Amino acid sequence: APVIGYAMATRDLPWPDWGLLAAYARKGDAITLSYLEVPPEWVDQEMVMVKTSSNGFSITLPDGTEKLGTVGVLLSDKERGIAVQVARLDGDVGRAYSIVHLTELGAISRLSSRLGVSERGRQTGIVTVNLRGQDREDTATQLAAIIRAYAEQNITQSAAEARKALEFLESQIPASEVAVGVAEKALNEYRAAQNSVDLAFETQSLLTETMGIEAELRLLVLREEEIKEKYTPNHPIYRQLLEKRQALQGRLVELQAGITNLPETQREVVNLTRNLELAQASYVELINRAQELRVLSASQIGSVRVVDQAVTMLEQVAPRRLSIMGIAFVVGGFLGVGIVLLRNWLRRGIDSVTEIERLGLPVFATVNSYSGQVKYTAGRLALIARDDPEDVVVEALRSLRTSLHFGMLDARSKSIVVTSAAPGA
Question: Kind of pairing, strands 82-90 and 115-119?
Fold first, then answer.
């Protein structure tokens, strides 16, 4: 049946539309549903649709009810909670189509069993996605949809992360602006009180380096706020950030010790100037970063790039007929040998006289195997009774003769037959 059905569906052969054959698929038959809704109790249950005319069909529901519909027109039954719309129905009149509404989990499981994802090399960030299917065009369309959905999800996630970071920065901007005003006022008041104090070149260099380190530390704090939602402290990226911050903090301690050794007036001006520049740099950085995040949240660009579009293989990937035939040949050979050995092991035969007597058969004698050397001479038969008349084998044969003599006194026939388990015995 599978061979005939496959030939009917894939070959342009003159199959007659007689009787039961009319319902089966031919090459080119297809159906496309633009909408399908069924009640929960009919999920995973089969419905049969039969083409009744060039543009009409009938559908048999799981409860046995039959409904008539037209291609392109929504067929609905609110009482039963079913609605179906056929967008395309290719095939001759009488052709039957099986329709099943899958559960979401069932559809995901089917797709997952056919989908494969692997990375090209270790930690390259390049992945290969493949999908197996029986229809070339349909499989390529499904794979393209999967990749497109993944890329769109990446864009949506990137925009959502940008908006979340933007909310945090916008909450910090007002406080940073106030801090700039306070630092500027404090520096101006002190200079006015000290009649305008200027900084020496060495002091200015010390202040500039201190400001640079503190600016980098601020950037690291903002960076840490972003990555701690993605990575744990043990992640290499997070650990690298912590190591860099620790090194900068150590250098900052050295510079602050140098500032402490300055004269009191210079030291106070350095501290006030540093506070002002820190506040201004922090404010500007927040403004710039917020602007970048606004652009990122409004953009349609993610971190995923599609290198190659979905294409189908020129040759089928399964089934591998030669491999299957080879494996089947080997397995079949082992299986055949195993069956023969098993049957031989299960065939026990007769081990003792007791087993024969249990069957109700008389045992006249038991003849052992001859342990001596049989003498063969030209023109003369080898006779154990003549060459070794005292052997137990000869005695067993004499006992058999006597038993047969008395056992056949009342027999209707005086004939006996001598046979063996194998030729030439």
Answer: unpaired
Tokens of 184: 């500027």
- Exposed, middle or buried: residue 14 (CB in 10 Å: 0-12, 13-18, 19+)? exposed
Strands 82-90 and 127-131: unpaired
Q: For residue range 394-411, what is the model confidence (pLDDT) as tens digits? A: 999 999 999 988 888 888
- Burial code of 26-51, b = ≥16 C-beta within 10 A, e = fewer? beebebeeeeeebeeebeeeebebbb
Interatomic CA distance for residues 422 and 147, integer angstroms: 72
Q: Which of 361, 368, 356, 353 is nearest to 399 (CA)?
A: 368
The total of other beta-carbon atoms located within 10 Å of residue 425's CB is 6
Which residues have a Cβ under 8 Å from the Cβ of 281 and sit 6 or more positions away? 211, 214, 215, 218
What is the rounded distance in angstroms from the CA atom of residue 61 to the CA atom of residue 48?
Answer: 7
| Lookup: tokens for 381 | 């038969």
Q: pLDDT tens across 286-337, in order?
A: 888 888 878 777 776 777 888 888 888 877 777 788 899 999 999 999 999 9
d(CA 248, CA 240): 13
